[in-house]
């Protein structure tokens, strides 16, 4: 059986590779995402369903930013994994640098992600380069 940490690691690989199908397959239909309020481009708040999270959050961020999601530590706790890491990169327009720590709380059930709660310093997404 796959552990929640292994599922989380597959999630970060899919993000790094820009593999939309793998992301879609990893998230449940009833996926619940919470993104830190204050994130740029209106992506903060609650997002219901995997399509909403993939298109309205990650797709929007990817269209505006060239950012790497760098997980550094995986802390398993039952069916959840707390992942500590950093976002690093810049706006595609070149006017904003991104260097922001994050904590992701990922909930896994039946080898899929049912929820992700993102906590990050949103101000670090708006620092001029």
TrEMBL record:
Q: Domain SnoaL-like: where? A: 8-115
This protein is called Ketosteroid isomerase-related protein
User: What keywords does the record list, in alphabetical order?
Assistant: Isomerase
Please give the Gene Ontology molecular function terms for this protein.
isomerase activity
Tell me which InterPro entries the record gives.
NTF2-like_dom_sf, SnoaL-like
